[in-house]
Amino acid sequence: MKTVKVNLGSRSYKIHISAGVLGELGRHFKAYPDVTKVVVITDKNVERFYGEIVTKGLQTYKQDVSVISIDPGEEQKSLPSAEDLYNRLFELDMDRRGLIVAVGGGVVGDLAGYVAATYMRGIAYIQVPTTLLAQVDSSVGGKVAVNHANGKNLIGAFYQPKAVYIDPQTLKTLPRNELTQGLVEVIKYGIIRDASFFDYLDKHLPEILRLELGILEKVIENCCRIKAWVVERDEREETGLRSILNYGHTLGHAIEAVGGYKGHRHGEGVAMGMILATSIALRMGLTNEKVLEEQRQILQRAGAPTYYREDTEALFDFLCHDKKAVAGSLKFVLPVKIGKVVLKEVDAGIVKEVLAGG
Ligand code: NAD
Ligand code: GLY
């Protein structure tokens, strides 16, 4: 079992990473003796694969275990879905000493976490992420949210879980395209903070793609360690440090939005966004061609796209109207070298030129 601690004073918690931990949750949860009732929130895909093993395990801890299974998909991250969940929790007589266990990808984790943060002014929850993206990113750090007509994740809170349990074995049933979305975030961690991790990924990518469990455990542990380091220093994204986690995301989000969320997936947008951000850094003389090429190669080997060839004008317009655009300049996280990024204001003219391929 690998363990990473997130040090946040009274809100500190541990992330436990181990192949097989999904079937052993009952034993681990004995560390939380005061809980009255357990409600697992999951989605129908995840329930099909893992509902039984999770419930059986948890029943060795508490007799009173209920499962609420939502439809899969980003549309579920909504206020109406949250309200459905509140109603179900009241029907189950969930009280303030109940525990929510979020078993699934980032959609389940963000929605269940948001419900936990708000039901009766906040009850405890534990994250059990089952996608690579959720294991290295969304389950750690306490950002919980639902979407709003005005944009993604606009209604939410910073609300830390009591613990995170990660079983890399769950990745065996994950569709390959979902794995790619998570791999882009994994590669991002190397670029933003850890050059030797980037080299490790470059060397071990074939084993990662073959889902070799020992390597996956190490990779997930390292990503969680980096995320914990950042979150400990800027939990509420106030100093600018936490924004380094958004490397490639401003452009990636614009790519997703311009495609009406039907073209490129989130990780694909981030992959192209990281390459575009590096092109901006190159144009500003902040970095060199090798940094661009190294990223492009590993992202391509991971199965992610690295050239945005669609509507660059619409992309530019979206960026200018996005909330991050202020008085003719846009803020981006830009790489200096592998392992180091900076947050910089960029003149909108430079962004336009780079997007146009100039
Ligand atoms: P997701 O939760 O939609 O899961 C992707 C698909 O995989 C779903 O169809 C799901 O049912 C299925 N699935 C999950 N685990 C599986 C498994 N082990 N085997 C087979 N199928 C499985 O998507 P995601 O990529 O995990 O999360 C995306 C969400 O995460 C977005 O809403 C995004 O905003 C959010 N997010 C949040 C944070 C944060 O800090 N809170 C960070 C990054 C992303
Ligand atoms: N996924 C970005 C963050 O947690 O801040």
Characterization of the model:
This protein is an alpha/beta fold and 358 residues long. It has two domains: 2-173, Rossmann fold; 176-357, Dehydroquinate synthase-like - alpha domain (Dehydroquinate synthase-like, alpha domain, Up-down Bundle). Helix content is 47%, strand content 20%. It has 13 helices and twelve strands. It has a seven-stranded mixed sheet with strand order 1-2-9-6-5-3-4, with helices on both faces. It starts with a strand and ends with a helix. The model has no long low-confidence stretch (mean pLDDT 95). The protein binds nicotinamide-adenine-dinucleotide (NAD) and glycine (GLY). Glycine is lined by residues 137, 141, 143, 242, 245-246.
Keywords:
single chain; 358 residues; alpha/beta; Rossmann fold; Dehydroquinate synthase-like, alpha domain; 2 domains; 7-stranded mixed beta sheet; 3-stranded antiparallel beta sheet; 13 helices; 12 strands; globular; binds nicotinamide-adenine-dinucleotide; binds glycine
Number of beta-strand segments: 12
Radius of gyration: 20 Å
Name of the top-level CATH class of the largest domain: Mainly Alpha
The CATH homologous superfamily name of the largest domain equals Dehydroquinate synthase-like - alpha domain
Write a short abstract of this structure.
With 358 residues, the protein is of the alpha/beta class. 47% of the residues lie in helices and 20% in strands.
Q: What's the arrangement of secondary structure elements?
A:
Blueprint: E1 2-6, E2 13-17, H1 25-29, E3 38-43, H2 44-59, E4 65-70, H3 79-91, E5 99-104, H4 106-118, E6 124-129, H5 132-138, E7 143-148, E8 151-158, E9 163-166, H6 176-193, H7 195-209, H8 213-233, H9 249-258, H10 266-283, H11 289-301, H12 312-321, E10 325-326, E11 329-337, E12 340-347, H13 348-355
Parallel strand pairs: 2-9, 3-4, 3-5, 5-6, 6-9
Antiparallel strand pairs: 1-2, 7-8, 10-11, 11-12
Helix pairs in contact: 3-4, 5-6, 5-8, 6-7, 6-8, 6-10, 7-8, 9-10, 9-12, 10-11, 10-13, 12-13
The structure holds nicotinamide-adenine-dinucleotide and glycine (GLY).
Residues 43, 45-46, 49, 72, 74, 77, 104-108, 110, 130-131, 133-134, 137-138, 141, 143, 152-153, 170, 173-174, 178, 181 line the site of nicotinamide-adenine-dinucleotide.
